[in-house]
Amino acid sequence: MKRVLLGVAVVAAGGLLVVLMREEISEALLARALPARGKPFAGFILASARKWRLDPWKLAGLLARESGFGAYLQPPTPAGKGDNGHGHGLSQIDDRTWGAWLASRDWTDPATNIDKGAEILSTELARFGGDYSKALAAYNAGPANVRRAVSQGKHPDTVTTGKDYSSNVLDRARVFQQKALA
């Protein structure tokens, strides 16, 4: 059974605040929290989150937003495309930025695709000092656009698809986490 250790979590339970130290997320716990289409990918999400030192809930939220775990793609499978044919697979790896990688890897393989998405998010997270809002916005809109928005005093989402990308991913992550703890 695969597990990822998290830091401290504070959970409201029946009016009491319960502090969970080093909460473990198992593949089964993550799968239970995901929608039916996401359940088969729980192990890949945990493996990539561990490898790239990411919060697995946030990585799952990104995959839910990007592709609906494949449901939003054409065809609606992990090997489908989105974004007018530019986004590839569950993580929607964009051929305009990652063309060489896509040409040299089997992006249709869910584990490979999720891992590349996790690598990209990890790079953006490092670039933006651990700020998931900025890193997620950069995943969607590019780091230069996010830097420009932030330097103008704007929220990073002002340059993202729907103007809500990072907020939406973080909301999805919270919903998955709350469902797991329910």
Q: What can you tell me about this protein's structure?
A:
- Strand 2 and strand 3 (16-20) form a beta hairpin.
- Helix content is 52%, strand content 12%.
- Mean pLDDT is 90; it is low at 1-22.
- The strands form 3 sheets. The chain has a 3-stranded antiparallel sheet with strand order 5-6-7. It has a two-stranded antiparallel sheet with strand order 1-4. Strands 2-3 form a two-stranded antiparallel sheet.
- Helix 1 crosses helix 8 (165-181) and helix 5 (110-127) crosses helix 6 (132-141).
- The protein is an alpha+beta fold and 182 residues long.
- The chain is built from 8 helices and 7 strands, in the order E-E-E-E-H-H-H-E-E-E-H-H-H-H-H.
- The chain has helices at 27-33, 42-52, 56-67, 95-104, 110-127, 132-141, 143-151, 165-181; strands at residues 3-5, 9-13, 16-20, 24-26, 81-82, 87-88, 93-94.
Please report the distance between the alpha carbons of the first and last residues.
Answer: 21 Å
Strand content: 5-15%
Overall geometry: globular
The side-by-side strand order for the widest beta sheet comes to: 5-6-7
Question: Cα-atom Rg, whole angstroms?
Answer: 16 Å
Structural class: alpha+beta
What is the N-to-C succession of helices and strands? EEEEHHHEEEHHHHH
Specify the number of helices: 8
